[in-house]
Amino acid sequence: MSLILRLFTITSLMYLSLYAAEFIYKDINRDNNKSSTWIALPYAFSSASTGLTAGVAAIFHGFLQPQMTMVATVFKGEELPVNEFNQDGVSEKSAYAKGFFIGVTGVRVPYTERLFFTYLGMSAYYPNQRIYLDGSNDSSRDVENLQPTNPTPFQTQGWSNWTYLDLRYVLPIGASKTEVLPVIEMSRGIAVNRDHVGGGVPFLSGQTIVGVKPFYQKWTADKLQPNAYIATNGLKVYLEHDNTDYADNPSRGYTMSFIYAQDFGAYDSSQKWNAVEAEYSHFIELPLPSWTRYNVIALNVWTAYSPSWDKNSFIKKADGTDSRFNKGQTPMWEGARLGGWDRMRAYDSNRFNDKAAIYGAIEYRLIPNLNPMQDQEWSPIPISWFQGVLFAEAGRVAPEYTAELLKEMKYDAGFSVRALAATLPVRFDMAWGSEGSTMWVMIEQPF
After folding, report:
1. 366: phi then psi, degrees, rounded to nearest 5
2. 15-26 tens-digit pLDDT
3. CA distance 337 to 176
4. Domains of the chain (ranges, CATH numbers)
5. Which residues pair with residue 398 across a beta bridge?
6. 139, 167 Cβ separation under 8 angstroms
7. Span 270-294, mean pLDDT?
8. Nearest-10 Cα torsion for 146, 152, 157, 160
9. How far apart are CA 135 and CA 397, in angstroms?
10. What percent of the chain is modeled with pLDDT above 70?
11. Exposed (0-12), middle (13-18) or buried (19+): which is 325, by Cβ within 10 Å?
């Protein structure tokens, strides 16, 4: 496969991620009266899904409440030809990518001490989405085939709309027994008051958070008639434990999380399903060469399983025949899925999807002393550091949670250039795998 460009920029933000901790970021190099910061970033990119596209993103941190972050973006692409299937055959039209995203994270709920609120939402239209309805298939099929039933991968114009609410409660145990929001003092993006923190006894140290996350997502296939869609809505319940020195870019310690997701089949949901996920990350601080400020090995293991997925039963179509979707099957963007900006980055988003999955990654992260934009007094863009990263990944999906998950795994490797902009890590990742190479631009570390 030739080089695939996937520049989601700010628009995807923390779509699948949750913050690993709640804290207050304090830059000791800034005036105390200027604790808040913001940045506006115009951007342009070109991809097969959107064509030439331009937009602007804005990040605001520390306004209203010191731990709050607000992000918003809008974008629009060039007109692209699209096909629509109907009873008269194929009709040709034109359409352009368009969308907006808004997110507000880390809001302390009024009149509470330990309860925090996050909202993320996006609405976007893509003229040429590449969708893996059955991610266990290989990608050698002709994606230009005009047959709408061509199973994998499937290309269509359509909407991708989603929204997430997140209520998080900081438990009064460990480091948060008396201090709900630790103040992390930063010097040029490196924590300087956390030498004693990271890697302690689980739950007796570190911060532990429980939360509930109502969600809704709908994907439409406007190429098909009548209008086809996949929709899901439900609730995720999770437990997170952060035992690192600095959650956004750890030097030492570990994090772990457990998630249970349930779609109850309400509203316009395509069907009921459930899934469980577990993740563990570990960070090892290495000796610092004289020309560096940060030198770390980061390790990650993640696994998922969908108990509801029945491989022997199918959803019925309106005419009573079997559809190609199993009963209890998760949508391709939920449950045991691999591929995209966080896991198996050389592959398309949700490239692999099945009942069970396992994944592992290793990253070598380094921050040099050199930073041409370190003088925050004159720089129009607050960049605290640049980070170079080398990474390798391995993963597999399978129809059952057995030893088969460890056989014939997919692999990829790549490099990344990252920067801390307005207190948020921004990353450019380039990865190579068996199906080609892919680039991503994204906010937040992958783990």
Report:
1. -140, 135
2. 434 455 788 778
3. 33
4. 4-443 (2.40.160.50)
5. 356
6. no
7. 95
8. 170
9. 9
10. 83
11. middle
User: Which pair of structure tokens corresponds to residue 240?
Assistant: 């997170």
- Within 10 Å of residue 121's Cβ, how many Cβ atoms? 15
pLDDT band at 326 (very low <50, low <70, confident <90, very high): confident
Token couple for 238: 């999770």
Question: How do strand 336-338 and strand 436-443 relate by DSSP bridges?
Answer: unpaired
Tokens encoding 105: 């994270």
- 244-272: per-residue pLDDT in tens? 999 999 999 999 999 999 999 998 888 99
User: Each residue of 37-65: pLDDT tens digit?
Assistant: 777 778 777 766 777 888 888 878 778 88
Half-sphere exposure of 310 (CA within 13 A, CB side): 9
Strand 154-170 to 253-263 pairing: unpaired
Record the tokens describing residue 144, joined without a space.
């230009």
Strands 4-6 and 436-443: parallel
pLDDT for 150 beyond 60: no
**Number of alpha carbons in the 13 Å side-chain half-sphere of residue 431:** 30
